[in-house]
Design brief:
2 copies of one chain form a homodimer. By secondary structure, chain A is α/β, with parallel strands linked by helices. Chain A is built from 11 helices and 6 strands. The longest helix of chain A is centred in the middle third of the chain and has 17 residues. The C terminus of chain A is likely disordered. Chains A and B meet through helix 5, strand 6, helix 6, helix 7 and helix 8 of A and helix 5, strand 6, helix 6, helix 7 and helix 8 of B. Chain A binds a DNA duplex (15 and 15 nucleotides) through helix 2, helix 3, helix 5, helix 8 and helix 11.
DNA sequence: ATAGCCGGGTGGTGA
DNA sequence: TCACCACCCGGCTAT
């Protein structure tokens, strides 16, 4: 009797979670590797697994989106499994909107599919089913969505450069560029011009000028000439 | 002066759920319509809301995928909100795999983003956040700015600014500062000077000059500044 | 590529 | 001109 072999690649660091073992118990052909970005790979689908607590804490560490970026650029389909009692964790959260907001961003901007499981066991079942579906649908995959262009335009650089100035964020950077036309023009401008033509006030303008003209001192120079 | 208003379209049949009212309470401009396929529409995103029980019972009716098909062909992005205690409902199921399998199919084949909320209140919050995100995305996306990790000293700022130039890292930035003495002097220098005195090549130098002098072009139509 | 809050800067208003 | 104040922006922080 022919038996279908499901194949799942698991990152070596997932071993302690017990999930690889559970999968093997279900008859999956498990391949352990050292994966760069994801925790599991099934066919062309990458899976990132995170416990609720990991997920929550990564909200505040900023590392989350960077990781999401890596996965999304490496695979065409990818899903996030959040494991554990999300509801309970959510109750402890001071600001639940951050949680929901992040999920929305992951789902809509990064194109993640997100699943919630209660424990490793459920995660294993989910992966198993996924492998089964991926296998049977092998040939009837829908065409993928167009890749996001993610262009690094000149405009982005311009805003980035000005935005690295103190007390200048993206909004102000854009305003300045609109007023002055180019990065150089902004940087050439005197503080008065900055204050008059750009939408920024004298205080900020002076601060910027001082910084631009400040003499560079290697070593730990702590000239608090600002403000 | 205008106040920014979030706008959500709700199907008339959603009224009894109380969610439209909750949204209105959050200051959303709610528009009730009779929608063909979805329950809510936010920007270009369609939202189908289902209570857990509805969802579960529709597993066995087969009508679910037909509905999914209709939504997916009418909108480019769409999400499903499953409202209620999924965990509890799942415990009653004889065969949970049907549940998970359906979710997987919806997510991967139909490209649904699926969210789970506890009650109408949470659903309303989710929709509200979604509207907010959709709205801020409608503006042009801005480049991610350099992390400004607590800059105290002038020296750090100087390096950060130059480091935000293309192909200039912290190391080169420092070198340039040492050669030229101040940020302004670096930016004033011609590409030849940069190449000769700073340790960078002409190619990089030219690239930087180009960027500095590039005319700023707002990508999207900017809102006219009527006062 | 989160959301909320706070502090400070800006620019307008009206005296 | 000045004082006030409303708004906007940027920076911080959150489990």
């Amino acid at each position: 009797m022919f038996r279908l072999v499901l194949r799942i690649v698991a990152d070596a660091r997932e071993t302690p979670s017990g999930i690889p073992e559970l999968l093997a118990g279900k008859g999956v052909y498990l391949q352990k590797k050292s994966l760069d970005v994801a925790d599991y790979v099934i066919g062309e689908i990458a899976i990132e697994r995170k416990t609720v607590n990991d997920f929550i804490s990564s909200l505040y560490r900023g590392r989350l989106f960077e990781q999401a970026e890596r996965i999304s650029s490496a695979y065409s389909k990818y899903l996030l499994i959040v494991e554990g009692d999300a509801q309970e964790a959510l109750a402890d959260l001071k600001n639940p909107n951050v949680y929901w907001g992040t999920l929305l961003a992951l789902a809509l901007k990064f194109d993640f599919r997100i699943f919630f499981t209660m424990d490793q066991d459920e995660t294993a079942s989910l992966l198993y089913l996924l492998a089964k579906q991926a296998q049977s649908d092998y040939r009837m995959q829908r065409p993928m969505l167009v890749k996001k262009p993610r262009m690094e335009t000149t405009k982005d650089w311009q805003i980035l450069i000005l935005g690295s100035l103190p007390s200048i964020g993206p909004k102000l950077a854009e305003k300045l560029l609109q007023s002055f036309g180019s990065v150089r023009n902004v940087l050439k401008a005197s503080s008065k011009e900055l204050a008059v033509r750009g939408g920024i006030g004298e205080a900020r303008a002076r601060k910027i000028q001082q910084l631009l003209d400040a003499e560079y001192r290697p070593g730990q120079a702590k000239q608090s000439k600002l403000a």
